[in-house]
Amino acid sequence: MDIFIYGTGCGAGDLVDEALPIEKVTAFVDREGGRFLGKPVITLSELAGRDFDLLIVASRDAEHVERECGRLGIDPGKLFFLRNHMKIVDRNRSYETARALLGDRFIDRMIHAEKLIRTPLWTEKERIAGPGSDNDYVRLKTLEAICMRLEGVKGAAAELGVNKGGFARWISELLPDRTLFLFDTFSGFDPQESADCGEGFKEAHRKAAAEKVLAVLPHPEQAVIRRGLFQETAQGLEEERFALVSLDADLEESTLAGLRFFFPRMREGGYMLLHDWNNPKLPGVKRALERFEAEYGRLQAVPLCDVNGTLVITV
Ligand SMILES: C[S@@+](CC[C@H](N)C(=O)[O-])C[C@H]1O[C@@H](n2cnc3c(N)ncnc32)[C@H](O)[C@@H]1O
Known about the structure:
It is built from 13 helices and 13 strands. The protein is of the alpha/beta class. The protein has 2 domains: 3-118, Rossmann fold (3-Layer(aba) Sandwich); 137-314, Vaccinia Virus protein VP39 (Rossmann fold). α3 links the parallel β5 (54-57) and β6 (79-81).
């Protein structure tokens, strides 16, 4: 078989080390010619003039390679993409050639990396984000990774600001064995606190119903609904300890109340997710954090690049 590898970086090096001995490689292909691992490096234009069996694209330059191959008339059926951060089947019609050539171990490792990026780690039931999905991919994948880190950390999970349960259902899915406290008025924001908010914003949050939230949770038996204003419904839970808390109350006073209640009750190793911290539409969330930090000191936190700027607070 006449096999070429596109790329002369880590991807190509890893491929030769792990799955395709250098003796089986005819040559490498890259934007510039030269030599790599003792073999010639040619350009795609030079490859286009040759008869060959397979071009394994081991570089992240997949878009460029695909475009250039199309322009040069290289048969797309001869391309196999390894490191394109896409679902492999999006670009490769079949794994058969690759499995036969590179072995199950290498291909399974690729599929594992693909799953980390594209699908839930522990369940194949539903793709939580991706093209055509309205979910917040970074937010949900971060939640998933955080839940993996919670192994060995005791404590309940909680969300302040549940609305229709869009995020709560993922907490329930990922932490099936923990009590999940769900705090919401289920009738919208505190009228006094939201006096300056737009009618559309307020109306859109009035339609939640606790029963409907329970119906979307995969583990409703673990849920404890606390219906009403958080400042009142948190009372009686002072002895509770938490491993994961999602704060998503949108407004300043409620967010501050959430920070004041939960932060001192977090288990070491736990996480708080402060949604909308970097959302210009809801500046009260950032102000609440500033006020809380003025009381408690600066928190350890990592900002996310998710849709609404969540802050992940570690404890
Ligand atoms: C943006 S929604 C929550 C969205 C939900 N976390 C999700 O990701 O699908 C905000 C919710 O916070 C609730 N909320 C705000 N302040 C509250 C308070 N002080 N007590 C109880 N619920 C409150 C509102 O009723 C509203 O349903």
